[in-house]
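Reproducibility note. Readers wishing to regenerate the assembly model reported in the main text can use the exact inputs given here. Chain order matters: entities are listed in the order in which they were concatenated for prediction.
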Amino acid sequence: MILSGMTGLNGLRSLSNYKEVYSKDVNWNALINTVKVSLLVMVASVVITFPLAWLIGRTDLPGKKHFRTILVSSYMIPPYVGAIAWTQLLNPSVGYLNNLFSFMFNLDKAPFNIYTISGMIWVLTLFYSPFAFITISRAMEKMDPTLEEAARIAGASPLRTLWDVTLPLMAPSILAGGLLVFIAAGSAFGIPAIVGMPGNIEVLTTRIVTFVYMGDEAGIKNATALAVSLMIIANGLLFFMSWMLGRKDYTTISGKSTRPNIVELGKWKSLTTLLVGGYAFIAVILPLGSIVVTSFMVSMSKGLVWSNFGIDAWIPVITSEQYLESIWRSLGYAFITACIGTVLALFVAYLSVKTSITGRKLPDLLVMLGGSTPSIVIALALIITFSGNYGLNIYSTIWIIIVSYLVKYMTMSVRTIAASLSQVHISLEEAALNSGASWLRCCKDIIMPLIAPSIVAGWFLIFMPSFYELTMSNLLYGADTKTIGVLLYELQTYADTQNASVLSVIILIIVLAGNLLLSKASKGNVAI
Amino acid sequence: MSQIKLEHIYKRFGEVTAVGDFNLTVADGEFVSILGPSGCGKTTSLRMVAGFERATEGVISIGDHIVSSSEGNIFVPPEKRDIGMVFQSYAVWPHMTVAENVAYPLKIKKVAKEERNTRVQEVLGMVHLGDYGNRYPSQLSGGQQQRVALARALVARPGLLLLDEPLSNLDAKLRESMRFEISSLQKKLGITVIYVTHDQAEAMTMSDRIVVMNGGVIQQVGKPYDVYTHPVNKMVADFIGLVNFLPAEAKGDQVILKGTSHTFANLAGIPEGPATLAVRPENIKMSKTGGMIAGVMKHRFYLGDSVDYRVQVQEHIVRVIIKGVQYGTWQDGETVYLDFDKVMMFGNERNNYIIT
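Running the prediction on these inputs yields the following structure tokens for the assembly.
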């Protein structure tokens, strides 16, 4: 399945139409915008998250555990929900924050406009910087703290230590985190579509969707040319990244696990707490608050007054057949995808970790390639492959959507299961076989119980993103397969802010519940 | 060069007291080891001297300066304590060459480049790494990385050198030669050293004095010979060297070995009641004809330079080690008579000192 999806795209790598596509200004500008925006988002994310990771990991910042949870949790908010929130906060006509600032400083004009390139960079940074934060914090946790202590005892101040030791040692991980953000921002569709398109700012992903919507062969051809550029950028960077991380051997013998030396912030404590708290508030609490508040407003035009609050907006949504249907549909699709995906992931992981068949790593590699390919490229490849060109037509059925989810999301599940499978030492299996158990019996009695938590975690890692997926569903849905992500996107495009907010809150509740279950199942080791 | 003084040091992590009432004065130029099982608080004590942990109570002074005082609210950060330190994990910076690693403390002190290079070469020569300056740590063996760490700790000529289990990641042969090397470097430089280890052989061979810790409390401070021959309690007797414990009874000025009529003078002043006699395996003589107590030979382990015997005495197994080849002299199942020399005795009220 994965293979055919990929070959479908490869077959269409006819270079002849590139010149034609990029000779149009709008396409060329989209490419430039993508690179420019992603680059700025990457730089901004690293500049913001490295100090955050250091403050939370290495200093006596008060409440740092809560800050970490809040910052990481923005990773599980669907990006388009974040985009909707920020359009509510900063749109030039009725944005809550704009109104607040206009009122406070007596301005004639709204101070901010979200529908600009800077607006787009702002929202993308807030919602994709957790990639950098997680990568950098993990690397910081893994670093032997005595390397820093050795600098302190040599006479270096905490800041000097940060500059001379921590920063250079972390450089590969910082770059890796930055590149992940770059790729994610470049492949994003939801945020550019909701924040950029109303201001006529196009990036590659939005151009691709526009071309596909044309519906004719020329449209597909142009879309493919753009998609291939995007894929080359994304996968090329990923390969560069893994090469770079594998190149420098910074592993050192680590001693007993001493707690990292906690830097005392002293007189800077209140200022840094204020800054970190402010960031957490702006990045997570403010947008979520905005969505929730909007969903409980009776009428958008009456503004934030007490009498204007009620559950009026909720009633049409939770009684509407159409809305409920797509919620159940998305849950169902995610469930089917997660079940098929977990079984496949189990096989792929077992093949790659536990067997010695030639080419055993190939399925693993393909799954990884699928995961690293931008969603929009996968969707396009599936359209080309499964619209009957190759004898199989599943276009606008649920199966094309499920295949797309599998291609995109199986990789996390395979990684999780493979990691736990590789920790089951071969001697444990040999001991079971030696005690007289058959191979199947050994799987059932020894391997399965040991990797069960990772299987559950792997299931959720497919289920959650599949549930709120937008980019691929938006290209692949048919009349009877409209998912909740697509529905929400439509509501937002038709400016039905309140219903969009209600639906967003429902999605957030389901995502939150799923994450609680996930962290319970994996005993806190895995969360989205 | 400095005298180190720790007075009534306590370290608490929440409810847990990791170190309780730690008192120690290390003389200028002295080599003191802190020895104890893992989790005994020895590393925490060392890290308080280094400034990586803040003592909850008490005063620490290095030379004439108080570096930590809970009452005076004084806390000098590690970088201002003028200390050299070697870590168990070496903590050699992988992104700097050997010479850059060693030069770092001088660079921080803004020592001029020429002098810096001279001193780096000098100290690298001391640890036999004169030709390795341009290498990166990943190109060195564990033992060589350890020497780089040592050179880096010594280059700024600190008054005090702290070593935190520096040899425990090395293989046995290297460990032994490094012991000798560290020891002779210390003598040559006359530097004060506090050395943390769980390996009694390291502590015995290198130190002027040993501090035995258990459960966060100092059990005994003394010269290696004194600690070995006159342990203050069962924990120290058991932790340093090998020992057999045998039940006894204290009565007046005599201690009677249980199951026999044999008595020892109660020189330790043990109160009346149940007591314990302790004797080291090398201080037991075996005979076929007679002795203090009879037993049955159970097992013999031939070790080359000695034989390790296990003799059943009543319900206990007594370990006897005799140097030289005597393997054939004794047979399993044979009745043997044991004579104890240098017997130590302890009351049964407690086995070691605990946090009060």
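We highlight two features of this model. Residues 251-257 of chain A have pLDDT under 50 and may be disordered. The longest helix of chain A spans residues 25-58.
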